[in-house]
Specification:
Order of helices and strands: HHEHHHHHHHHEEH
Distance between the termini: 26 Å
Number of helices: 11
Strand order of the largest sheet: 1-2-3
Structural class: mainly alpha
Number of strands: 3
Radius of gyration: 20 Å
Protein backbone atom coordinates (compact mmCIF):
# COMPACT_ATOMS: atom_id res chain seq x y z
CA UNK A 1 0.00 0.00 0.00
CA UNK A 2 2.71 2.44 1.01
CA UNK A 3 4.76 1.69 -2.11
CA UNK A 4 1.81 2.64 -4.33
CA UNK A 5 1.38 5.91 -2.48
CA UNK A 6 5.10 6.69 -2.57
CA UNK A 7 5.26 5.96 -6.29
CA UNK A 8 2.83 8.79 -7.01
CA UNK A 9 4.66 11.06 -4.57
CA UNK A 10 8.17 10.42 -5.92
CA UNK A 11 7.07 10.59 -9.54
CA UNK A 12 5.73 14.10 -9.03
CA UNK A 13 8.78 15.19 -7.04
CA UNK A 14 11.13 13.85 -9.74
CA UNK A 15 9.17 15.75 -12.35
CA UNK A 16 9.48 18.90 -10.23
CA UNK A 17 13.26 18.52 -9.89
CA UNK A 18 13.95 17.53 -13.50
CA UNK A 19 12.09 20.46 -15.08
CA UNK A 20 14.84 22.96 -14.30
CA UNK A 21 13.03 26.01 -15.64
CA UNK A 22 9.94 25.36 -13.51
CA UNK A 23 12.09 24.56 -10.47
CA UNK A 24 14.15 27.76 -10.73
CA UNK A 25 11.07 29.90 -11.43
CA UNK A 26 9.18 28.48 -8.43
CA UNK A 27 12.11 29.35 -6.16
CA UNK A 28 12.92 32.76 -7.61
CA UNK A 29 9.35 34.09 -7.80
CA UNK A 30 8.82 34.50 -4.02
CA UNK A 31 12.27 36.07 -3.69
CA UNK A 32 11.33 38.64 -6.34
CA UNK A 33 8.11 39.44 -4.46
CA UNK A 34 10.12 40.15 -1.34
CA UNK A 35 12.89 42.09 -3.08
CA UNK A 36 10.87 44.22 -5.49
CA UNK A 37 7.37 44.69 -4.10
CA UNK A 38 8.41 44.45 -0.46
CA UNK A 39 11.31 46.89 -0.66
CA UNK A 40 9.34 49.44 -2.69
CA UNK A 41 6.21 49.34 -0.51
CA UNK A 42 8.22 49.29 2.70
CA UNK A 43 9.68 52.70 1.92
CA UNK A 44 6.23 54.14 1.21
CA UNK A 45 4.69 52.75 4.39
CA UNK A 46 7.65 53.95 6.43
CA UNK A 47 6.73 57.52 5.51
CA UNK A 48 3.14 56.93 6.62
CA UNK A 49 4.18 55.31 9.88
CA UNK A 50 6.24 58.36 10.81
CA UNK A 51 3.07 60.28 11.72
CA UNK A 52 1.32 57.43 13.54
CA UNK A 53 1.25 57.19 17.32
CA UNK A 54 2.50 53.96 18.85
CA UNK A 55 2.58 53.47 22.65
CA UNK A 56 6.08 53.63 24.13
CA UNK A 57 7.65 50.22 24.50
CA UNK A 58 5.23 48.55 22.09
CA UNK A 59 6.69 46.10 19.61
CA UNK A 60 6.68 47.49 16.07
CA UNK A 61 7.61 45.74 12.84
CA UNK A 62 8.36 47.15 9.42
CA UNK A 63 6.05 46.64 6.47
CA UNK A 64 8.69 44.36 4.93
CA UNK A 65 8.36 42.05 7.93
CA UNK A 66 4.57 42.39 7.94
CA UNK A 67 4.31 41.34 4.30
CA UNK A 68 6.79 38.49 4.80
CA UNK A 69 4.00 36.32 6.18
CA UNK A 70 1.77 37.40 3.32
CA UNK A 71 4.35 36.39 0.71
CA UNK A 72 4.62 32.94 2.32
CA UNK A 73 0.83 32.61 2.12
CA UNK A 74 0.53 33.89 -1.46
CA UNK A 75 3.31 31.64 -2.71
CA UNK A 76 1.64 28.65 -1.06
CA UNK A 77 -1.68 29.58 -2.67
CA UNK A 78 -0.22 29.85 -6.19
CA UNK A 79 1.83 26.67 -5.85
CA UNK A 80 -1.12 24.68 -4.53
CA UNK A 81 -3.67 25.88 -7.06
CA UNK A 82 -1.38 25.00 -9.95
CA UNK A 83 -0.32 21.70 -8.38
CA UNK A 84 -3.21 19.79 -9.94
CA UNK A 85 -2.02 20.53 -13.48
CA UNK A 86 0.02 17.31 -13.20
CA UNK A 87 -3.21 15.34 -13.33
CA UNK A 88 -4.39 17.25 -16.39
CA UNK A 89 -1.19 16.34 -18.24
CA UNK A 90 -1.65 12.72 -17.19
CA UNK A 91 -5.14 12.79 -18.68
CA UNK A 92 -3.95 14.27 -21.96
CA UNK A 93 -1.01 11.85 -22.26
CA UNK A 94 -3.05 8.75 -21.40
CA UNK A 95 -1.28 8.02 -18.10
CA UNK A 96 -4.35 8.72 -15.99
CA UNK A 97 -6.26 5.93 -17.73
CA UNK A 98 -3.61 3.44 -16.63
CA UNK A 99 -3.56 4.79 -13.06
CA UNK A 100 -7.33 4.54 -12.70
CA UNK A 101 -7.35 1.03 -14.19
CA UNK A 102 -4.67 -0.21 -11.77
CA UNK A 103 -5.57 -1.92 -8.45
CA UNK A 104 -4.18 1.07 -6.56
CA UNK A 105 -6.84 2.84 -4.44
CA UNK A 106 -7.78 6.10 -6.11
CA UNK A 107 -7.41 8.08 -2.91
CA UNK A 108 -3.68 7.22 -3.05
CA UNK A 109 -3.44 9.25 -6.25
CA UNK A 110 -5.02 12.22 -4.51
CA UNK A 111 -2.85 11.94 -1.41
CA UNK A 112 0.35 11.34 -3.38
CA UNK A 113 -0.19 14.47 -5.47
CA UNK A 114 -1.26 16.39 -2.36
CA UNK A 115 1.79 15.57 -0.29
CA UNK A 116 4.19 16.21 -3.15
CA UNK A 117 2.64 19.67 -3.43
CA UNK A 118 3.06 20.17 0.32
CA UNK A 119 6.75 19.27 -0.01
CA UNK A 120 7.16 21.89 -2.74
CA UNK A 121 5.46 24.47 -0.54
CA UNK A 122 7.79 23.65 2.35
CA UNK A 123 10.81 24.16 0.09
CA UNK A 124 9.50 27.55 -1.03
CA UNK A 125 8.80 28.62 2.55
CA UNK A 126 12.41 27.91 3.49
CA UNK A 127 13.62 29.87 0.45
CA UNK A 128 11.44 32.85 1.41
CA UNK A 129 12.68 32.82 5.00
CA UNK A 130 16.31 32.57 3.95
CA UNK A 131 16.06 35.33 1.38
CA UNK A 132 13.94 37.46 3.72
CA UNK A 133 16.65 37.39 6.37
CA UNK A 134 19.16 38.58 3.77
CA UNK A 135 17.10 41.66 2.82
CA UNK A 136 16.16 42.59 6.38
CA UNK A 137 12.93 40.81 7.28
CA UNK A 138 12.75 40.38 11.05
CA UNK A 139 11.65 36.78 11.36
CA UNK A 140 11.16 35.58 14.98
CA UNK A 141 12.22 38.83 16.76
CA UNK A 142 13.54 38.13 20.24
CA UNK A 143 12.94 34.38 19.97
CA UNK A 144 15.28 31.85 21.55
CA UNK A 145 16.62 29.00 19.40
CA UNK A 146 14.02 26.61 20.80
CA UNK A 147 11.24 29.12 20.16
CA UNK A 148 12.45 29.61 16.60
CA UNK A 149 12.34 25.88 15.97
CA UNK A 150 8.82 25.66 17.38
CA UNK A 151 7.75 28.67 15.30
CA UNK A 152 9.08 27.13 12.08
CA UNK A 153 7.18 23.93 12.82
CA UNK A 154 4.03 25.96 13.49
CA UNK A 155 4.37 27.80 10.18
CA UNK A 156 4.92 24.51 8.32
CA UNK A 157 1.84 23.02 10.00
CA UNK A 158 -0.39 25.85 8.78
CA UNK A 159 1.23 25.88 5.33
CA UNK A 160 0.87 22.10 5.00
CA UNK A 161 -2.83 21.99 5.88
CA UNK A 162 -3.64 24.99 3.68
CA UNK A 163 -1.64 23.55 0.80
CA UNK A 164 -3.42 20.19 1.04
CA UNK A 165 -6.82 21.87 0.85
CA UNK A 166 -6.02 23.80 -2.30
CA UNK A 167 -4.18 20.90 -3.90
CA UNK A 168 -7.31 18.76 -3.46
CA UNK A 169 -9.34 21.61 -4.98
CA UNK A 170 -6.88 21.94 -7.86
CA UNK A 171 -7.00 18.17 -8.45
CA UNK A 172 -10.79 18.30 -8.62
CA UNK A 173 -10.72 21.11 -11.16
CA UNK A 174 -8.02 19.38 -13.22
CA UNK A 175 -10.06 16.20 -13.49
CA UNK A 176 -12.96 18.29 -14.83
CA UNK A 177 -10.91 20.24 -17.38
CA UNK A 178 -9.72 19.20 -20.83
CA UNK A 179 -7.05 21.82 -21.57
CA UNK A 180 -4.38 23.66 -19.54
CA UNK A 181 -5.86 26.94 -20.77
CA UNK A 182 -9.20 26.10 -19.17
CA UNK A 183 -7.53 25.17 -15.91
CA UNK A 184 -5.49 28.38 -15.90
CA UNK A 185 -8.61 30.48 -16.50
CA UNK A 186 -10.47 28.88 -13.58
CA UNK A 187 -7.47 29.18 -11.26
CA UNK A 188 -7.00 32.86 -12.16
CA UNK A 189 -10.67 33.46 -11.42
CA UNK A 190 -10.26 31.85 -8.00
CA UNK A 191 -6.97 33.54 -7.17
CA UNK A 192 -8.11 37.15 -7.53
CA UNK A 193 -10.90 37.16 -4.91
CA UNK A 194 -8.85 35.00 -2.53
CA UNK A 195 -5.91 37.38 -2.88
CA UNK A 196 -7.67 40.72 -2.65
CA UNK A 197 -10.13 39.68 0.09
CA UNK A 198 -7.33 38.70 2.46
CA UNK A 199 -4.86 40.34 4.80
CA UNK A 200 -1.80 39.01 2.97
CA UNK A 201 -0.28 42.34 1.89
CA UNK A 202 -2.37 44.98 3.65
CA UNK A 203 -4.69 45.34 6.67
CA UNK A 204 -8.35 44.48 6.20
CA UNK A 205 -9.59 47.09 8.70
CA UNK A 206 -10.38 49.62 5.98
CA UNK A 207 -12.19 47.12 3.73
CA UNK A 208 -15.89 47.72 3.01
CA UNK A 209 -17.84 45.65 5.53
CA UNK A 210 -19.05 43.01 3.00
CA UNK A 211 -15.45 42.31 1.95
CA UNK A 212 -14.29 42.37 5.56
CA UNK A 213 -17.02 39.87 6.43
CA UNK A 214 -16.08 37.55 3.55
CA UNK A 215 -12.40 37.74 4.47
CA UNK A 216 -13.22 35.99 7.75
CA UNK A 217 -14.16 32.88 5.72
CA UNK A 218 -11.18 33.16 3.39
CA UNK A 219 -8.69 30.31 3.98
CA UNK A 220 -5.86 32.62 2.92
CA UNK A 221 -6.69 35.01 5.78
CA UNK A 222 -6.52 32.16 8.30
CA UNK A 223 -3.17 31.04 6.89
CA UNK A 224 -1.73 34.55 7.12
CA UNK A 225 -2.94 34.90 10.72
CA UNK A 226 -1.28 31.64 11.69
CA UNK A 227 1.98 32.46 9.92
CA UNK A 228 2.21 35.93 11.46
CA UNK A 229 1.46 34.55 14.93
CA UNK A 230 4.48 32.24 14.72
CA UNK A 231 6.66 34.53 12.64
CA UNK A 232 6.26 37.81 14.56
CA UNK A 233 4.37 37.16 17.77
CA UNK A 234 0.95 37.56 19.32
CA UNK A 235 1.09 41.32 20.02
CA UNK A 236 2.70 43.88 17.70
CA UNK A 237 2.15 47.09 15.73
CA UNK A 238 2.50 47.28 11.95
CA UNK A 239 1.59 50.24 9.71
CA UNK A 240 0.27 51.94 12.85
CA UNK A 241 -2.26 49.17 13.52
CA UNK A 242 -2.29 47.08 16.67
CA UNK A 243 -2.39 43.32 16.00
CA UNK A 244 -3.25 40.91 18.79
CA UNK A 245 -3.56 37.16 18.19
CA UNK A 246 -4.83 35.02 21.06
CA UNK A 247 -4.46 31.26 21.34
CA UNK A 248 -8.19 30.99 20.62
CA UNK A 249 -7.70 32.90 17.36
CA UNK A 250 -4.93 30.50 16.41
CA UNK A 251 -7.08 27.44 17.16
CA UNK A 252 -10.01 28.86 15.16
CA UNK A 253 -7.73 29.48 12.16
CA UNK A 254 -6.24 25.99 12.41
CA UNK A 255 -9.66 24.34 12.64
CA UNK A 256 -10.91 26.41 9.70
CA UNK A 257 -8.02 25.24 7.53
CA UNK A 258 -8.44 21.63 8.65
CA UNK A 259 -12.16 21.76 7.86
CA UNK A 260 -11.46 23.24 4.43
CA UNK A 261 -8.83 20.57 3.66
CA UNK A 262 -11.14 17.76 4.79
CA UNK A 263 -14.01 19.11 2.69
CA UNK A 264 -11.83 19.46 -0.42
CA UNK A 265 -10.51 15.90 0.05
CA UNK A 266 -14.05 14.54 0.16
CA UNK A 267 -14.97 16.46 -2.99
CA UNK A 268 -11.81 15.29 -4.80
CA UNK A 269 -12.42 11.70 -3.68
CA UNK A 270 -15.96 11.74 -5.08
CA UNK A 271 -14.69 13.09 -8.40
CA UNK A 272 -11.97 10.43 -8.62
CA UNK A 273 -14.39 7.63 -7.68
CA UNK A 274 -16.65 8.57 -10.59
CA UNK A 275 -13.86 9.42 -13.05
CA UNK A 276 -13.82 7.52 -16.31
CA UNK A 277 -10.97 8.28 -18.71
CA UNK A 278 -11.46 7.04 -22.27
Amino acid sequence: MSSEFLTIYWRDMLRFVRFKAALVASLIQPALWMALYGAAMSNNFSRLEAGMLVPPGAMTVSYLTFMGGGVIALTTLFTSLFGGITLLFDKNWGLMRELLASPMPRNHIILGIGLSGVTKSFIQVMVIMGFGLVIGVQFFPGYSLLQKMGAVLGILLFVGIFSLGFLFLSSTISMSMETPEGLQAVITLLTLPLFFASNALYPIDAFPWPVRFLSQFNPLTHLVDGVRYFMIGSDFYAIGIHYVYSSNDLIVSLLALMGFAALMFLVAWQVFKRAVIT
